[in-house]
C-alpha cells in the first residue's frame, strides 16, 4: 500500500473519531433524547466503517505491496543475493549505469561501448533472444529491454555448471578391436607371437587406465569399453592419438596392426549405446579400419584417424611364411581355381596369371575364372588374345564350368579382392570350401568366409607385387613368359598410376623382378594407351581446369556430352601430376540424369571425406560420387560447397 493511501486512511479515521466526539459532546450538553439517538447511531456507524477500513487495508497491505516498497533500501542486497544485475545504456549504446552486483564485481565498464565490451550482445538488438555471456568467468543470461534501454542479467553459472557436469557424466560405450591380430599371430614364431599378445594388450590397457576407461577383453583381439562423455571429449581433442600410437608400436614389433574403434554415445539407454557402438565398429571396418567411428542418436556420424593411406612394411618374413603355407595348400589340392574381381583390370588379371604360374611350377592343374562380359576394356583385349592362344588352351574358364571340378579337392585362390559381392562368381565362394585370399585392398566389413589363408597387405601397391614377391620363396622355379611378365607389369602400372602413388621399395623390387623375367616395359605402356578419340576427350576435360583455392583444381565436361567414369578419373589423374596440385575434381555427365564427380588427391587432402558429403565414398586419395542431376553447373556448385565445408572443418580442428 502506498504511503499516500495510508495517510488518507489515517485522516478518515481521525475524522470519524472527531465526529463521534462531537456527537458525544452534543449529548452531554443537551441531554436530549434526540442527541442520544444521534450519538448512538454515529457510534455504531463509525465502528462499522472503521472495521471495514481496517479489514480492507490489511488486505491491501498483503497483496498490493510492490517490490520496490517492500525492499526499499534492501533492493541492493536482494539483487546481489539473487545474482541479478542491471546495465543501463544510452541511445549510442554506451553503458551509462551498472547495478551494485557489478560494482561489487569491480566491473569498470561505465562509459564504455556496450558491444565493444560484449560483442556477443549484438544479437540481442536484432531479435528478442536471451543470450548467455561470460563476465569475469561467470555465466550470465542477458535479456534486453529495448524501450527502457536496460539489460537484465542473471547469474546462471551454477546452473550451467551442473548441466555441464550432467553432460560430462553421460555414458559412452565402445568396441575396440585390433585389426590383423589373428593373422599376425598366425604368421609369427612363438616368441614374437607372445610379444604381440602382451604388447598390444598392454597398450590398450595403459590407454584405458590413463583415461579412466573401464575396459574388458571379450575376445582375443577385441575389447569393450565404458567411459563418460568427458573422456570422449578429451579423445576428440587428442584426435584419438591412441590410433597412431598403437600403429607405431605395432610397427616396432614388425607387425602391421591397427585399431578399429566404434563408439556409441548420446543416449541414456545402455542397450541402445551398445547397438550404436557395434554398428559404428562395422562402419570403421567398412572404411578400412585404423580409425574411430562415432555414432550418436542426435548427431551426424564422426570419423577420426584413418589417415594412414598406405605405408610400407619392410618385414619380409611374412611373405616367406605365406609363400610356404600357400605352396602347401597348392600341393594338397587336386586342382586350383583362380578368381579376380568383377570388371577385372590389369592388376586382377595380371595377379591371376602370376598365381597360375606358381601353380604350374608345382605341376598343378590351374584355371583362371574369367567373365568376358565383365572385363575392363583394355584388359579385355589382352585376355581375349590369350584365350585364343594355343598355349593357354583350357586355362581360362567361365564361371559356369566350376561345377566340373571336385569341389572338396579344389583350392580357390581369390586375388585382388576380398569381398564376395565383388567376386567374379560369388557362387564359387559358397561351394568351394578351401579358399585363399591375396589382396592389397584395405579390409572392409564384408569378407570372404573362412579362408584357409589370408594375405592382406594394404601397404602393397598391387596384388601383382604381392604375388611376384612370393615367387622367390617357392621351392620350385617359377617361370613366366615375356608376355605374362608384361601383363603383370601393366597391372603394377595401373594400380600405382604409373609408379606415382602407393609405391614402396618392395614395389620396385617386384618391378625389377618382372623386368628380369623379360617384361617388355614399353609394350606394357602400350597396353594402357588410350586411342586418339579417348585422348582428345580427356584433353577437352583437362583444359577446363580452374583453380579452386590454393592447390585444388576442378575440371568439368561439356553439358551436352556423356562420359564414362573411367575417363573422368583419367583426366583427374592427369591433372594431379601438375606441380603444387593437392587435389583434383573432375565433374561430368555420366548418364541422362546423372552427374559424376571423380576425386583424386595427394596425401594432404582427404577426398573421401569430401565425396562423402555428397553421398559418395572411396579412399583417402581416391573417391567419387554420383549426383542425380542433369546440370553440370549445379554439381560444381555443390562440390565447391563441400570443399569449403571440408576446409573449414580442417581449420577448426
Ligand atoms: Mn589391384
Automatic annotation (TrEMBL):
Instruction: Please give the start and end residues of each transmembrane region.
Output: 12-30
Write down the superkingdom of origin.
Bacteria
Q: Which InterPro entries match?
A: DDH_dom, DHH_sf, DHHA1_dom, GdpP-like_PAS, GdpP/PdeA, Oligoribo/pAp-PDE_c-di-AMP_PDE
Q: Which UniProt keywords apply?
A: Cell membrane, Hydrolase, Manganese, Membrane, Metal-binding, Transmembrane, Transmembrane helix
Q: Which residues bind Mn(2+) 1?
A: 341, 345, 416
EC nos: 3.1.4.-
- The record places domain DDH at 335-492
Task: Identify the residues that the record assigns to the Cyclic-di-AMP phosphodiesterase GdpP-like PAS domain, covering every copy.
Answer: 81-156
Catalytic activity, reaction form: 3',3'-c-di-AMP + H2O = 5'-O-phosphonoadenylyl-(3'->5')-adenosine + H(+)
Recite the UniProt cofactor note for this protein: For phosphodiesterase activity, probably binds 2 Mn(2+) per subunit.
Membrane topology term reads:
Multi-pass membrane protein
Its cellular-component GO annotations read: plasma membrane
- Binding of Mn(2+) 2 occurs at 347, 416, 440, 495
The Gene Ontology terms for molecular function here are:
cyclic-di-AMP phosphodiesterase activity; hydrolase activity; metal ion binding; nucleic acid binding
Question: What residue stretches are annotated with the DHHA1 domain?
Answer: 560-644
Keyword Metal-binding attached: yes
Q: Which cofactor does it need?
A: Mn(2+)
Q: What class of enzyme is it?
A: hydrolase
The places in or outside the cell where this protein is found are:
Cell membrane
Q: Does the keyword RNA-binding apply?
A: no
What role does this protein play? Answer: Has phosphodiesterase (PDE) activity against cyclic-di-AMP (c-di-AMP).
Query: Its family?
Result: Belongs to the GdpP/PdeA phosphodiesterase family.
Protein name in the entry: Cyclic-di-AMP phosphodiesterase
Q: Which organism is it from?
A: Thomasclavelia ramosa DSM 1402
Amino acid at each position: 500500500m502506498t504511503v499516500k493511501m495510508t495517510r488518507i486512511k489515517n485522516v478518515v479515521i481521525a475524522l470519524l473519531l472527531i465526529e463521534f466526539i462531537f456527537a458525544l459532546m452534543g449529548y452531554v450538553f443537551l441531554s436530549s433524547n434526540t442527541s442520544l439517538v444521534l450519538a448512538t447511531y454515529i457510534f455504531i456507524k463509525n465502528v462499522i466503517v472503521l472495521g471495514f477500513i481496517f479489514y480492507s487495508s490489511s488486505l491491501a497491505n498483503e497483496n498490493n505491496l510492490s517490490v520496490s516498497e517492500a525492499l526499499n533500501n534492501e533492493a541492493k542486497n536482494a539483487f546481489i543475493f539473487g545474482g541479478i544485475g542491471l546495465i543501463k545504456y544510452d541511445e549510442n549504446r554506451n553503458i551509462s549505469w551498472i547495478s551494485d552486483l557489478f560494482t561489487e564485481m569491480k566491473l569498470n565498464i561505465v562509459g564504455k561501448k556496450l558491444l565493444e565490451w560484449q560483442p556477443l550482445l549484438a544479437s540481442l538488438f536484432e531479435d528478442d533472444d536471451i543470450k548467455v555471456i561470460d563476465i569475469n568467468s561467470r555465466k550470465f543470461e542477458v535479456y534486453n529491454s529495448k524501450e527502457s534501454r536496460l539489460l537484465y542479467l542473471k547469474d546462471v553459472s551454477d546452473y550451467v555448471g551442473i548441466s555441464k557436469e550432467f553432460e560430462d557424466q553421460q555414458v559412452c560405450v565402445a568396441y575396440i578391436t585390433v585389426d590383423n591380430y589373428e593373422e599376425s599371430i598366425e604368421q609369427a614364431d612363438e616368441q614374437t607371437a607372445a610379444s604381440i599378445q602382451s604388447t598390444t594388450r598392454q597398450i590398450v590397457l595403459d590407454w584405458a587406465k590413463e583415461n579412466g576407461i573401464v575396459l574388458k577383453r571379450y575376445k582375443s583381439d577385441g575389447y569393450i569399453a565404458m567411459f563418460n562423455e568427458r573422456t570422449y571429449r578429451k579423445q576428440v581433442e587428442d584426435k584419438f592419438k591412441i590410433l597412431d600410437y598403437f600403429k607405431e608400436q605395432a610397427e616396432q614389433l614388425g607387425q602391421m596392426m591397427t585399431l578399429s574403434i566404434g563408439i556409441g554415445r548420446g543416449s541414456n539407454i545402455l542397450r541402445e549405446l551398445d547397438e550404436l557402438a557395434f554398428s559404428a565398429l562395422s562402419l570403421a571396418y567398412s572404411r578400412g579400419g585404423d580409425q574411430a567411428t562415432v555414432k550418436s542418436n542426435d548427431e551426424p556420424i564422426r570419423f577420426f584417424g584413418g589417415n594412414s593411406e598406405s605405408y610400407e612394411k619392410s618385414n619380409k618374413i611374412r611373405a616367406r611364411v605365406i609363400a610356404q603355407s600357400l605352396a602347401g595348400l597348392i600341393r594338397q589340392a587336386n586342382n586350383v581355381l583362380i578368381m579376380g574381381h568383377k570388371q577385372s583390370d590389369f592388376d586382377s588379371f595380371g595377379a591371376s596369371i602370376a598365381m597360375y604360374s606358381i601353380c604350374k611350377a608345382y605341376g598343378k592343374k590351374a584355371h583362371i575364372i574369367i567373365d568376358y562380359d565383365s572385363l575392363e576394356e583394355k584388359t579385355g583385349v589382352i585376355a581375349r588374345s590369350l584365350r585364343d592362344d594355343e598355349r593357354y588352351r583350357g586355362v581360362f574358364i567361365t564361371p559356369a564350368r566350376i561345377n566340373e571340378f571336385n569341389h572338396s579337392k579344389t583350392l580357390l585362390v581369390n586375388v585382388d579382392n576380398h569381398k564376395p559381392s565383388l567376386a567374379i562368381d560369388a557362387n564359387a565362394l559358397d561351394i568351394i570350401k578351401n579358399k585363399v585370399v591375396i589382396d592389397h585392398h584395405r579390409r572392409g566389413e564384408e569378407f570372404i568366409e573362412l579362408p584357409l589363408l589370408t594375405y592382406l597387405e594394404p601397404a602393397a601397391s598391387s596384388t601383382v607385387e604381392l604375388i611376384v614377391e612370393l615367387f622367390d620363396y617357392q621351392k620350385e622355379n617359377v617361370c613366366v613368359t615375356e608376355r605374362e611378365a608384361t601383363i603383370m607389369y601393366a597391372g603394377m602400372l595401373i594400380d600405382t598410376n604409373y609408379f606415382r602413388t602407393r609405391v614402396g621399395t618392395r614395389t620396385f623390387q617386384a618391378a625389377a623382378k618382372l623386368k628380369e623375367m623379360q617384361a617388355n616395359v614399353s609394350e606394357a605402356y602400350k597396353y594402357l594407351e588410350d586411342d586418339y578419340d579417348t585422348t582428345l576427350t580427356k584433353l577437352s576435360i583437362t583444359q577446363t581446369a580452374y583453380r579452386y583455392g590454393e592447390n585444388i583444381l576442378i575440371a568439368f565436361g561439356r553439358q551436352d556430352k556423356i562420359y564414362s567414369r573411367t575417363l573422368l578419373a583419367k583426366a583427374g589423374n592427369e591433372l594431379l601430376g601438375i606441380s603444387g596440385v593437392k587435389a583434383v575434381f573432375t565433374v561430368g555427365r555420366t548418364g541422362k540424369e546423372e552427374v559424376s564427380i571423380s576425386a583424386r588427391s595427394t596425401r594432404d587432402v582427404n577426398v573421401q571425406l569430401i565425396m562423402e558429403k555428397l553421398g559418395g565414398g572411396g579412399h583417402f586419395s581416391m573417391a567419387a560420387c554420383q549426383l542425380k542431376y542433369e546440370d553440370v553447373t549445379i554439381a560444381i556448385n555443390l562440390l565447391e560447397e563441400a570443399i569449403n565445408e571440408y576446409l573449414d572443418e580442417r581449420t577448426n580442428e
